[in-house]
Each structure stands twice: as structure tokens, then as C-alpha cells.
Design brief:
This protein is of the alpha/beta class. Helix content is about 30%, strand content about 15%. It has a six-stranded mixed beta sheet with strand order 2-1-3-6-4-5. It is elongated and about 90 Å long.
Length: about 210
């Protein structure tokens, strides 16, 4: 077991707590972390960008003018890509974006990201996170007590994933609050500091150990 800082629900009374060694990797592999980030970013793309080719644009059935003896360049359709309102040449079409990564590599990537945060001293634990009603002021008081001031990722358990908790942090632009089911390597590496509740830590152990 490794030691990390543990804070109470109001951000006070910091003490040492044990962090499960099964969530840490002996070595951090940058290539695997890159693959895991690619997996997160590519698979979130919807692939719905679409443009019309000249065959899909309405109209343009007849020639704009006769072929010869007009003094103008020859044209066969007003829907040509050369014309305003015409089709688009080589424009984007709907497609499916998919990047495959084995489940073992995804889990190992998560453990490596946690290891990187732990070694950099950017990982802390929180006993519990509960709000009776949405209150941004209480959320800021908690973060100030912990000592986090910018780019913070908070991992909560499914039980703690309630509307008051979500809304309390939603107005703070530099904080993201996620349940453990939505965590990925990209989010872990994007934010400077990581705060994990003990309930979320138990869920991570069940998922990754």
C-alpha cells in the first residue's frame, strides 16, 4: 500500500491514507498512454459531417447556354462545383470512426495514468462527497480547503453521482466531476489534479484490480 493525502468532506483535516498498490503500475509506458488517449478521442467522433456532390444538388438539368458561339466558356450544368450553389468536390461524407484497443490495454492505461498522477503528487483522496442541494460556494470551499485552484478532475462513486453534486461543480469552469464509469485516460491526463472519493476508489479497485 502507498500513502496519499486524505481529506474530510469539507476539505479539512488532511491525513495520510493507503492507496491500493494494485491500481499502480511499475512503469509508465508513453506509447500505451498515447494509444489509450487515441481510443478515447477517436471513438467519441460522430462522423456526421456531410456535403452534397453535384449529383445530389437539386436542379441543373439543362445546359446554362448552348455549347458554341456565345463567347463564354462551355458548361453543362449549373450544379457544377465551379458554380455558386453547386456541388462540393471531395467534401466530407458520413463515416464511422473507430479505434480498437484491447480491454487489458485500456485497463493498464488507466492504471498507468493513476500512477503518473501519484508520482507527481497530484492525487488525493476524499472521504465522501455529498450536498443537500446545489451550492457552488460549498464546492469552492471544499476545493480551497484541499488546495486545488485549477484544472481539477473529481471522481465520484455511482452513489455520489447525484444532481446536487453535479450542479455544485458545473459552474466552475476548471473543474470536471465524473463517476468512475465515465473515466478514461484522456480525462485523467488532461486535468492537473485528481481527487478521488473513497467510494469511487472502491469501484476503481473492483474494475481494475
Amino acid at each position: 500500500m502507498d500513502k496519499v493525502r486524505l481529506y474530510s468532506g469539507d476539505g479539512a483535516a488532511a491525513q495520510e491514507a493507503e492507496f491500493p498498490s494494485c491500481l499502480l503500475e511499475g512503469q509508465v509506458d508513453p506509447d500505451l498512454l498515447h494509444r489509450a488517449v487515441q481510443y478515447s478521442l477517436v471513438n467519441r467522433r460522430r462522423g456526421t459531417a456531410s456535403t452534397k456532390t453535384r449529383s445530389a444538388v437539386r436542379g441543373g438539368g439543362g445546359k446554362p447556354w448552348r455549347q458554341k458561339h456565345t463567347g463564354r466558356a462551355r458548361h453543362g450544368s449549373r450544379r457544377s462545383p465551379l458554380w455558386r450553389g453547386g456541388g462540393v468536390t471531395f467534401g466530407p461524407q458520413p463515416k464511422e470512426y473507430k479505434y480498437k484497443l484491447p480491454k487489458k490495454m485500456r485497463r493498464k492505461g488507466l492504471r498507468m495514468a493513476l500512477t503518473a498522477k501519484y508520482r507527481q503528487g497530484q492525487l488525493s483522496l476524499l472521504e465522501e462527497l455529498q450536498f443537500a442541494r446545489p451550492k457552488t460556494k460549498e464546492a469552492l470551499r471544499l476545493l480551497n480547503g484541499v488546495g486545488f485552484e485549477e484544472k481539477v478532475l473529481i471522481l465520484i462513486s455511482q452513489k455520489e453521482d447525484t444532481m446536487p453534486v453535479r450542479k455544485s461543480f458545473s459552474n466552475i469552469r476548471w473543474v470536471k466531476c465524473l463517476p468512475t464509469s465515465g473515466v478514461n485516460v484522456y480525462n485523467l491526463l488532461k486535468y492537473e489534479d485528481l481527487l478521488i472519493t473513497q467510494g469511487a476508489l472502491a469501484e476503481l479497485q473492483e474494475r481494475l484490480c
